[in-house]
Each structure stands twice: as structure tokens, then as C-alpha cells.
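Sample intake sheet
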Amino acid sequence: MSKQKTILLLVILILLASNAFFAVKYFAAQEDLQQAKVVAEGKQTNKKVLNFTKLFIAQVLRADGEVDFETRLKLENAVRDLNDEKILAQWQKFVESETEAEAQEEVKNLLEISIGEIE
């Protein structure tokens, strides 16, 4: 084999090795990115749940009288924005409560579920 062919073969092997190295690095970076997206989505959900819970405590539990329509609408939108079926179902139970005792029990359940959804 001539010296030129040996050098060419060596260059090709180096290029193939570097391509393999960068392919492995690329796929590792893709996996890291996917994990980061999952973490970011979890944090966003946690933030929404906390904001709803704070709003609920401030506007409902600390209310002196009946909660006005605008506040109820704001809370309803906040619940729907969570995109969480368990919290939404519990919210519906709370809203549909017919007695004060039933509403108090449903509030406890709602807060327990909300806090339980935080990761």
C-alpha cells in the first residue's frame, strides 16, 4: 500500500471516529434536553397549582362574606388552566356543595389534592 493511500485511510478512519463521537454526544444532549423539558413543565404546573391555592386561600377562605361573581370566575379560570382532572373534579364537588358542612369538607379535599399535585 502506498503512503498516500495509508494517509487517506487514516484520515477517513479519524473522520468516521469523530462522527461517531459527535453522534453519541448529540443523542446524549437530546436526552438531557428532554429531561430538562419535563422538569420545566413540572415546575410550571407547580407554579400554577401554588398560584391557584394562594388565590383560593386569599379570596375564599379569608373572605368575610360571600365570594363575588368576578372572584368565582377568576378561580374557575385558574382551576381550568391547571389542566388537572383531579383538581377540576374536586373543584366541581366544592362548587356544587349544598350545605356549609359539605362545602367545608370539600375545601379540605380540594386543598389536599392541590398540595398533593405539587411535585
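Comment: The longest helix spans residues 3-61. The helical segments are 3-61, 69-82, 85-95, 100-116.
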